[in-house]
Every structure is written in C-alpha cells, then in structure tokens.
Amino acid sequence: MSAASVALPPESSWPAAPRAQLVQPSAPPAKVLTSASMSQALRTMQYAVRGSVVQRAEEIERQLASGEGAALPFDKIVFCNIGNPQAVGQKPITFFRQVLALCDLPAESGVDHPSASLLFPPDAIARAREMRAAMGPGGTGAYSTTQGVSRFREDVASFISRRDGHACEGRNVFLANGASAAIRMVLTATVSSADDAVLVPIPQYPIYSGLLSLLGAHQAGYMLDEAQNWAVTVECLQAAYDDARAAGKCPRACVIINPGNPTGNVLSRDVLETVIAFCVAHRLVLMADEVYQENVHEPGLSFVSARKVAIEMGERARALELFSFHSTSKGLLGECGKRGGYMELHNIDPYVQSQIFKLASSGLCAAVPGQALTSLMVRPPVEGEPSHELYARETADIRQALAERARLLVDGLRAIPGFSCNDASGAMYAFPAVELPPKAVEHARAQGLAPDEVYAVSLLESTGICVVPASGFGQAAGRYGFRTTFLPSTDELRRAVRHIAQHHEAFCQRYA
Amino acid sequence: MSAASVALPPESSWPAAPRAQLVQPSAPPAKVLTSASMSQALRTMQYAVRGSVVQRAEEIERQLASGEGAALPFDKIVFCNIGNPQAVGQKPITFFRQVLALCDLPAESGVDHPSASLLFPPDAIARAREMRAAMGPGGTGAYSTTQGVSRFREDVASFISRRDGHACEGRNVFLANGASAAIRMVLTATVSSADDAVLVPIPQYPIYSGLLSLLGAHQAGYMLDEAQNWAVTVECLQAAYDDARAAGKCPRACVIINPGNPTGNVLSRDVLETVIAFCVAHRLVLMADEVYQENVHEPGLSFVSARKVAIEMGERARALELFSFHSTSKGLLGECGKRGGYMELHNIDPYVQSQIFKLASSGLCAAVPGQALTSLMVRPPVEGEPSHELYARETADIRQALAERARLLVDGLRAIPGFSCNDASGAMYAFPAVELPPKAVEHARAQGLAPDEVYAVSLLESTGICVVPASGFGQAAGRYGFRTTFLPSTDELRRAVRHIAQHHEAFCQRYA
C-alpha cells in the first residue's frame, strides 16, 4: 500500500491504551543493578524527543520491514519528531563532504593522488591541504587538544567576529560533540547543589529539563507568551525567579533558545536587551542556545546574537557572563550525524573556564571530523572559488525549501478546526495547540498519561506520522499539542497535513 | 637545534617550583560564576592525562612555535602522555579511510563517480555501498537511532560472538563517542548517592576516579600488586571492599582494565574467574574496560574477555551483570580522533537498560563516522578481497612496531639506576617506579605538590619529554614514577630513554 493511499483505520482498531513507557520497572530485585538501586536522578529524567512515542515508531518500523506490519494503514513512518534534515531527504553540501573525504584519505590516496582532480575540485583539494596542515600529522585520526584544533577555533572566532562586529578570540571557543555536549558541560560546571535553579523557557528543548533532573537541580520555568507569538517578557522571567526564590532555591543561570525550539520564534534585539538586563540585575549567567541562527525563514526578521547585543549595551551589560552555543546539525548543512558544534565563553571567570577545560579534557576531545566540519560551516567557499557556485545553489535551494515548508505546514495546521499555531519564523518546527475532547483528557489522566501523549500515539498508529507530544517540552496547564518538524518533502508534508486533519476528526469523534 | 643534539640545561636553569595548576582560584567573587559558586564536585575532579604537566607542555610548544622558546635545550615536545598513536606517526589503515571517505562523499561524487575506481579499490567501493545502505538515506549526515546504526551493532555483535565463542545480540550493543562516553553513561546510571562506592584498580586510568568525583561517589581503590606484575588478588579486592563497608559505603560495581592502563599487565583467565566470582559473591556489577584487547605484545600471552570467562564459568557466574567497553582509538587502528567505540551489556536488567537508552538519547547518538569506523574495525578485509594484502601488511607493521617499542622502552628504563619497571605486556604504556631523592620529596611536599609531578615537570622542561606523573593514576604510598607511552618512533624512543636517564642523574644530583 503506498503512502499516498493511506486511509484511517476503523475506530475499533485504535489502541485502547498507549503505553507510558515501553519497559516497566523491574519487580523483585533479582539483579544487583535495578530500578531501586540505580541512579534515581536518571529515572526521573525525561527526554521526549526520543521518548516513548518515538520508540513505538521504531517498533512499528521494524514490523513494517519484517512484513509483520502488513495490516497497518500505512507503509512507512514519517519521522517528524526530530530536526534530522538529511534523514528525510535534505542533501549534504557537496564541497563540505569533498573536503571531509580528503581530510580522511591518506595523502597518497587523496590530496596527492595523481587522479584526485578527476573526483575533486581544486579548491576542495586546496582547502583539505590547509586543514590537514592545521590538524597536524595525526590528522583526523589523532586526539586534538582539548578545546579542539587551534586553527578551527580561530575560524570560529573569525566567524563570530564578523557576525557580531566585535572581536572574538579562539581561546574562548570550545569545539564539542554537538551543542548538546557543550550544554551538558556548562550545566555540569554551573550547578552546584539541589538548591541551585536554572531559568528555562517553557516550552523548551528538553535537554535542559533532562540535564537539570540528572544533576539534581531545580528547573525554574519561565512561560513564553503564546498569544504574543511566544514572547519572552520580563514579567514571566520575574515570576519564575520569584517562585524559585520562594521555594528556597538560588537561581544561577538563565537559558534562552533563539530561534526558539520548539516554538519557532525569533528574539528581537529589544527582547534580548530585556533578558540581558534581567540577568545582570539578578546575577544570572546567560546560556544562549543559538543553534538555529541560520534558520530564519520569515522575510523581514533576522537573527541577532546575545553576544552582539550584550556588547552593544555597553556599561549596562558589562557584567554579563555568557555561554553561547552553535552546531553543525542545523542551519543549512543539517549534518546531525557528525556531532559538530561549539560554545563561546564570554566574560567567564578564568578559573571557571579552566575547570570547564578539565571537564572537556576528561572526554579527551570532540570528534575531529565534526571539528573539521565546524570549520567548514563557518568558512564556506567564497565568490570566485570554483566550488562557490554549487555551494550557493545548494544552500539557496535548502533555504527556499525550508521557508516554503514552514509556510505550508503552519497554514495547513491552522486550517484544521481545533488547531491553532504561531508562525514558524525560525528553527525547524511547528508547535500547534490542539483542542482535545474532554473525554480524551479524562481517559488519559485516568491512566496517568499526558493527554497529548495519547494523542501522539494515536496519530502514529493510525497514520505513521511520528511527532513529539507538547507535554515533552512543557506548556501552560490545559494546553495540548505536539511538535512536528517541517523537514520532509513538500509532497510528504501536504499528505501529512491531510492525515493529521483526518486523524484529528476521527479522534474527536471517538471521544465525543 | 635538532632533537638529536638535545643536552640537559645547567641545573640553575631548572624551575624552582613547578605550578600545581596553571590558573589560581579567582579571588574576590566579582563574577556570578566563580570558584565558590560553581560545581564543587567538578573542582575536586582530577584528570592527570591532560593535567598541569600537559598544559605546561602545550605552553612550551607554543613558545617553540613562536620563536620564544629558542633558549630551550630542545626543539620539540615529545608527547608521551597520551595513547594517541597517529599524533606520533602511526599511519591509518588505508582501507578504513577509503571506505569512510566514500561514506561521506555524495554518491555522485564518490561511489557512483565514473572515475571512482581510479582512486578506490573495488572492495572499498563495495563496502561503502553496503554501509551507505545500512545507514539509510541520511548516511553520515543524519542522527542514527540512539544505540547506533542497527547493522553496525550487528557487526559488533558478530565480532563479539566470534571472539568469545558465545552468541551476542546487537540489541545489547551501544555505539558511543569512544569508550569514555560509554563509561560515563554507565557510571551515571549506576551511582545513586554519595554512599555508593565503585571498586577501581590502583593504579587506574583516571576517567574512573574523575567521574566518581564528579558524581560525588566513593572510589574504593584496590591495589594491584606491583611485585607480582600488577596482579589482581582477591585479598586486595576484599580489603578495598571491607574498607568501603567500614566507611559506611555501599560498593555497587567493580572496574577492571584489561590489558592494564597504565600498568600494561594482561589478566589471565584464572584472575578473571577470581574477579568474577568476587563480584558475584559481593553483588557487584562488573565493568570491564577492554579497549586494549588487540594490544597484547608479549609472546605467549593472549587477551580473554570477561564476558567469555563469565559465560564459561556457567552456574557460578550466571548472576554476573557485566558492562564491557571497546574503542576504535586503540588496537591497531589508533583512530583516536574519530571517537568511536561501543559497550556491550550482558545480563543487565531490562529496565536499567531502558534508562541507559534514555540517557544515550539525550545526547542523540554517537558521531556516525565513528560508528562506521567501529563497524570497519570489527569487519576488516578478509583473505581474497583486493584490500586484504595491504591491510594485513599495515596491521602487521603496526603490531611489530608496538611489540619492539614496548621491549625497547621497558629494557631502557630498567637499565636506569633507580628505575624499576614491569613488562608492558599489553596496552601502550610503561609505568616505571622511580626512586626519588628524599630532599626532592620533601621539597615537593613543602609546596603541596606530588613529588612525581615536580619530577615530570622537571623532565619536561629539561628534555621536552611529556609524561604523566604516576600520582595521577594512584599508587602505593611512597612510590613515585610516571606513565609514558611507547608510541613514538624507535629512534625517538631511544633518544627519549637516553634523555630520561640523563635527566634522572641530574635530578638526583640536584637534590643530593
């Protein structure tokens, strides 16, 4: 059965009770390491982006592959749960891959091979020679220094300097296995005890809530205002701060995600000034998650970094301590599998920086191919170089596709009765609110499940579309919904919107 | 000045007091995040393999590069602090790199390019096609599933099954960013509170001590018997266990490193049986760090996995819960920069396994090039394939070089008066004991420094040889020494031994 001919199954075939977790805690402690003896902090940690709905989707995918899933009303899973562009068809940037390949190949089999020019353009060969020299004799096969290859960090510093118009130094750049690893290091260094709190937007990308659980620290969620396109307001920051204080917690840091994940909003300079002034006034370190900085789709909007704003605020923000994060997984490369990324430390105490260095050392270094890709991301081919034209065409195509799909998805979701959805101005997601029938909510609550988890499993099992329940990101009480990427092809997205609409109607009828 | 003509500097030019740390704690807390407010667990963590001696070496290297180091009695740093083979001249395995390059190149620029066969042998092209199919449409550019690409995990499972003669399943294999990341995940899941203890060999590779500090757990060190070639004895295990109990701690797990790092010993089947029986009797999870399993240099010795021994012990070890670790960074590939590796879970509670899965999910996946390399490591070219001859020659050369250098280094160190050194039967290190003059010990203690740290800095600053003080790995009270790799070229190692001998004589005279 082709994906195009998907139909919803009869109501009676829907699952009565989606599982909250695939594996139940072990009963009697026959083993040494059990639910009772293991880390309880890990048990409480949640990470919905790859949570129970996704595990169910992978289970169904295995059934489809083995033929067991023949009775299902779809023939493939459409993974909209994660920003993983190349998994759903986005092509890699050719030049980057050519240079990476030439960095990996032994010289005599690559850059020095007499036939190299038949496979590789001259600027890819030249760049690879330069990067091989920068990596030293061990190349991609050796541990680099802890913070990453010095020249690659200088490339990042030049990029930041150009982007912000304010000089940045390579010694303050740490290359990491994706932004996730960098965020983990910073939170590990920042949080000292269970009394420490970190201000985190709600909704948020769950690496923050997850790591804070694991570290045993307090998450002080500040609400984004959905009615104002997910605005950050000083009132909400203050409320979260005050609540944490009232609970006897000490707020240490504040996280912003710009552009927003899962919310897709782009923070203006004014808002950033507000947040920065708030951090300075309340002595909070700012963590700026800027991994979607290249992903602004809305004409007229543009990304401004927290670093640029802080520097340009002058004396008012002189005291700000800032960690900012970027990644090779998003943007126009979407090279998630390479686990490349960096963080930049702005005005961080040198002793604290030395301790973060020590923590990074214990993991030896970030994967060197990811480091090389980070250098390439911030130093793409420029006009006049042989690969520039192809690079420009490839990135323009990706940029256009993302903008189109953001529009298509948001418009499509808005047209579904019971759905509302802010613009996906940035990032890779739509985050609609969905009105659920009261009976569905009751039914879920009775089983101890989040209503939108029941909804997401129902959507998956009847259409093959895998999204993440909004409850996995946090949201206002009584709101339900999900996060979906807009990364699949335009045709697939159109089909997905149709199936989401059909499923919603059937779901509402079921619980009428 | 060439490295060959290195001479020791006059005694007066030696540093009076090597620094314990390069950066001192920040004085008044002008900043928000300071030595006082940051994670105190991170502050107590130590990681000597990239500690103060190495940071001093990197500082000197920068001086040499900038010309400031012209007065130094050497013209390069010989990094013997870390098992980083390709950084000191070991060549990568050609076939592996060719396949990795073809996995990264877009199909039309690589496997499907009309000139591909001019650069790549047919079996590399065929293998790359197979691996690309296994990775799916996103290839190396997409996040894989949390545990790693299913087919690559099956490759690992087949390798383990062949190695042990007992079937292993891919669902119990987690691919990771090097063994370090896997070890971090297991300790994070295992340790629940400050009352939990983990038995760790002394000396040990400091990722264990470092992570236990960071997790706030108790390290129960069991002494290896240096007089018996670093033997593990049940008496020492029992003593460590009893001490932990007496201190009110609950031992949860036991670590073995086989072959030993930094000790170079290879555990016999008998010893493994003893350790396993001890773990079963005392309800300890076993963590077997087997990253050097391919690095056994001593004729007549061979590696046996803890898993194989446990299975073959039958009923006596039926209850054993075992995590074992392997890596692409060591062995005959030495691909440290790729951060590839895996862990295998044997008889682990399914709920605990699901929680480790969740923890791995929050980091999304291991870098996919490292995953691909792990598959290649366990599935090299076989006889009859076009690349087999080159592969066999390359690996035989590396194997022979490592065996020769291990012998050369150990014999050379043993010949130095005041040095004693067990065989480096396995792994990549010698771990000599060095008799220090009592005055040097007093002098160091007076400054709050480990005597062998003073010694290592002195060696570095007078010869350019960078080793790690033995105190960074733990050792018996009153013992001093260092860990050095035997990875540099034979010529360089001969020179290093001579310089170590000259330095030792001068050091002893200085403190006579």
UniProtKB/TrEMBL annotation, chains A, B:
UniProt keyword annotation of RNA-binding present: no
GO biological process terms on file: L-alanine catabolic process
InterPro entries attached to this UniProt entry: ALAT1/2-like, Aminotransferase_I/II_large, PyrdxlP-dep_Trfase, PyrdxlP-dep_Trfase_major, PyrdxlP-dep_Trfase_small
Keywords tagged on the record: Aminotransferase, Pyridoxal phosphate, Transferase
Protein's name in the database: Aminotransferase class I/classII large domain-containing protein
Pfam families: Aminotran_1_2
Highest classification ranks of the organism: Eukaryota, Haptista, Haptophyta, Pavlovophyceae, Pavlovales
Domain Aminotransferase class I/classII large, chain residue ranges per copy: 122-500
Molecular functions per Gene Ontology: L-alanine:2-oxoglutarate aminotransferase activity; pyridoxal phosphate binding
Record's keyword annotation contains DNA damage: no
Subunit structure: Homodimer.
Cofactor(s), by name: pyridoxal 5'-phosphate
Family assignment from sequence similarity: Belongs to the class-I pyridoxal-phosphate-dependent aminotransferase family. Alanine aminotransferase subfamily.
